[in-house]
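Dear colleagues,

As part of the handover before I leave the project, I'm documenting each prediction I ran so the next person doesn't have to rerun anything. This entry is a single chain, and its sequence is reproduced below.
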Amino acid sequence: AREVYTSGKYFDISLDSMSTDSHNLMINECYSFQNEKFFQGNSSFYAQNIVTQGFDASRLHVATEGSIVLNLWMFIVHKLYETVHNLENGDPGLVELDEAFTLWVGLKQEEGFNDGLLMYNIAENAESYIINDPTDANHIESKVNKNIIELFKSARVLVNSIHTDRSGSLDDFRVLMNRLIGQMTIPLVQRLIYHISTDKDDGFIKLYGLSILPLIAGCSPSSYDRMNSFLIDEMFDDTNAEEILNLLESSVYKYLVMQLSFMTEILVRAVFDIQQIAGYTSVGHAYEESKIDLDILQIAICLEVEAFIAARDIYNNGRNSIDGPVLQSLFKLGRKHTYPNNPHKIVNEVFDKGAYTHLSVHQKSELIVNVLQYMVSMQTALGNLQASRDACVPSNTDQSKIYWDGVVPYLIGSLEGTERGGSKDGLLIYSFAKQMCVEFGTCAGSGDAEVNERLIQELNNGKNALTSDSPCDEINTISKSIEHLLLIPLIQGILYYAVHIEKNGKEYLGLVTGYVLSLLLQNKIDDDEVAQKISSIMIDPVYKDTPLIPGGASQLFEAFKKVLPSMDIDCKAIGEIPPFGGVCVVVDDDTAIIDLEEPTILSKGLYVTTTNVGDRAKIANDVRSMEDALISGNTDLAKQIYAYGLDAFKYDENGQRTNEKWNLAGFSLNSGNDMAEDPVYNTYRYALRNANGEFRGRSVDFYADAYVMFALNSKNAPTLASEAAVALNMWMTVVDKLYDTVHDCKENSNNPNSLKEDGGVHTLDEAAAFWIGDSQVTGDPYQGHLLYAFTEKIGEIFNQDAGGQTEVNRRLMRLFNEAKDQITFANACTVQSNTHVKLKHIVDEMVSVMSIPLLQSLIHGLFSNDHERVQLYAVSIVPLIAGCNPNTYAILREKLIDNFYKAVDFDEVFKLLQSTHQCLGISCNDLGTYQQTGSLSCTDPLPLSPIGSYTPSFDVHQQSKIDLDILQISILVQMEAFDAAESLYTIGKNMKDSENSNTARSVQSLASSPSREIVPQYMFYRRYFEEYDYADRIILDALSGVHPYDSATTDQKTVIVTSTLQYMVAHMHTLRKLYESISECDPTGGTSIGSESWDEAAATFIGSITSSMTDSKSTENSQFLISGLAQEMCGSFGTCDSDDTAEVNRQLLTKFYAGQTEIASANCDALKRTVEEMIPLFLVPLIQGTLKYANLNRALRYPDGTEPSLARGYILSQSILPVINEVDSEAAEVINQNMQFELQDTQPVADGVLAVFDAFRHAIPFINGLDCQDIGVMNRMTVCERPFSLKNDESSTAFKASGIIMLVIANILFCMLGFITIRQYFSRKNTVSLNQFQNDLELQSDTTKETDRMINQENGVESPIEAMGETDRMIS
């Protein structure tokens, strides 16, 4: 076998000589590649080496197959290239083409069978390994062989036409040949996949790895390196199989084989029309054109192995890039446009050795590659940019769009891939900018160069502009911006190579790179002196072989300092390189003074502030630096930047810079003082604290800092801490500044002499600066580092980035401007204006919009199962839900914050989050569509969706949100943010006006509305409290802490304010809407508006928090209005039905539906009767609540007057007393005296709970329509006439007979104990005091009462001490 391989037998060239003579046979082809380790430097004979090793290891199958897929396969390719060369020289190429076909098929091959011996047979076997489809009865031969034979036939026709009548095109043949070689590669890839996935044979894996690695070297250097390591350098490891397959996808599939969709069994890979290049989406076929960088890469490989003819062939004729149907070449591009420096001339001079003879071979090769990389490609891109401008016609921009798409391929190239930021394989100016950003410190947080991120944004802006109303003007502006951006990496490169040339001398390879970059830049500089300096330092040593100029690098730095301002380039964009620094003119910062009144232009005019907040915007640089430190693994540096700041110096009131810096940590550490009255911050404090008022072991005041410090130690997510600093520290700071704006405006309105003379203008500007930051580019997620960029980045994932920037940022900028307009117009924030009210509503909307990117990030983390980011973004957004639904918040906190998220909970968590959208003020449309799946279904509730179990006829969901205002006021009072609570009470937030759903309606407006007079019962309250706005007075007095609430605890104030809102304000508004429905009812059958008032009555009775007022299992502790109170009380009074729903709620729901029908049928009399029946039902939970808290409070030990239950019992009693007072003033007085909040040295419920029951018992019969049975029985106590209820119905809590007997026995024992005690005392000496006797007697009385309690528990009866006392008297 070895003899046949080496010497041959039937063919005039042996299989061995196809490899060993390859450097002679294939001198015009660049087929080789380097693998020094495996081939020990002899890479030209790589095929012969692997076959010989097969013989040496007795792997004859490997040796035999290797001689085919390595030696013969490459020889076939050689014959195809010979065909091209013959045609170029005017010779016929049919013989070589026929030889190539014959060598593919072989002598004994039958069509479609695997009985042959050459590549055709291997292709048949390869496809059968991958696809085994028994249903394909028509299968004759493999698809790849079919394609190859058809291509050979087409090639034969084309060769004839080229040689005979010259009707064919040689370029067409080249395109066809490349397709043919691509098809010939398919069976090699198929066999490699098979051996990796199935038999794991290391010998065959190495063989087929070697068969395609030379091609991958010219497609993707990084993929080649990895695959070479996996397949050649080491024994095959099955654990690397998946990565190898992915590498195949990213290299071979994209660049070599364009029809692989049939390889479906082992690896399903759909080949698609790639339209994205490094994040830019083309509208045409720019990707095919962008493969010009593959030509450059393959030229570089050919030059490296000294295949100069092959390199020149690729240069002249092209190989990979296609522009429409035409094969594109670098030579053609070099002659396409008029350039200041002719790249074609430079390349030819190097190839022809007409110039540059003083350069080394490697420098010459590098010069050719650099000219192609930067000069040809970049100048082609600029030419297309100009052509797009010239072709732009407002009425038709089609041609302009084609040229615009032609810019990207030559700036970025195909090797960068599709993802934003590209890859490490790139070769063009985009890749060079990434190299330079590392050297000059101008990389963005994504790792990409800042200039690249801006470039992509402008390219997308230009594409969008061509569809706008004034495309040509916009294209002109954007084109100029792109041209300026491209100068940045050129300048960086010239400075970088100047430094290294000075260090390494003229032998340095980078000498020629600096030369090419300088040629590109020279004609862009108007200053002749600077242009001449660049020429003498960077150009002449290469072109004229002049000596290097000592100190040239320093001279160039100074030259650019001089010329940059005239070039309209920000010197900061160039960055700095040690030890030369940057090209900015240094100003003595210690004496720097800024104008505090000078506006700050953020993001090139995206938002223009009124005051100077440039120092605040620079905190963005700290975020970037912190992120860079984390990426590089320098956690200590990241901590230092976070804690002490880096770039954002503060300025004093005179505009003088101080030594203090803004720092990210300070935004959290100072929040306890700075944000004391911030409603959102206090909601987070409330929600995140544990029983000790802590979060992650520290005061909850510093929750953001606590989380960032935790995140700094994250191993799985290195940048988690910098993300947290933005999402927690900066987000809350922006929120606080917005509410400070409202506060400052209000201060001006209330106090004309306030120091806040700007009415909040400056704090609004601060909020904008902290949202947008320094160096932000409009719509760019990577050119910026604060919340604006964060929003852009997550918005892309949710398809919200159409039109230049995300909808969230667009809305916020509009709202920022609306807020600015409010506080800058004449007479704004004065006593005469109502500016602060309008401003607060704008700020409330802004906070809702600001919550969207946080929620999007949480959803993205959930779907990605990213535990660290789930927890971070849960901390950032879930606390807001505590002000929406306490039950929902508790579940989400337990699943997402307190514990690691579990993927199995995704559906439940997503549904819970969606349920809070309306409360958060957002919609599904605001969130967008999640890119990574189509399975996330988000649906907003319909306008007439049920409120609880009631389905309205009108959309009154906004009115039902009264409970959200009450809940959030309650949270703020509990956190002692009394001013914030008052602001929410007086201005409103969640509840909207029924006539204008976009206008917030305050709860105070309900508490003081003159419209209440339509309610007959309202006069009861006015007379009783001797106050028109009785509830309003209670609330404001409690918030202010004035008498009688000056000694109330915070918890008691919370109860007083909350309960007054629930049971007085909301209750009266419900009654008002019921009576308005009667007055609006149209008995003639005409259009009635009473239904909307009726629905609003139901909405303010049920509320928005509960999902169903008749489903206690789903609404436990969540109902927040009177319906919730009824649900809370029914368990204590035996008034729950079989479904554990309050019976009074069920009755009221029935009557709400009855009234709805009566209004629709214009039955106004029936409607009036329904309302009269409902009025007493509303009183039931108020009476029950008063009785329950009388019972609870009686057990309190005097003088402990701090219990919140005292406050709740007091307000519940005050809510019902005006009605009781109307029918029985004496009963009202008894209730009032026993339920008073101010104890004044008396025991709570001094007369005992039975006295309160008796008072209600006397009054209830006089309340029209109220049935005492509806109140129920609590601990055997009832308000019905029977003082002791022994009812036999299911709701009765009567004693069992055995229980009564045991009670009798217990009391007999009590008497006996008392008798024995008395006798013992009187038998003692007279020194025993009467007081001691009484104390002992009281002790035994308590013991007996405890015995009674235990007996009652045994019988299933709850019995407080007072009830036992009554029982004792009755039994006696």
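The mean pLDDT is 82. DSSP finds 64 helices and 14 strands in the chain.

All the best with the project,
I.
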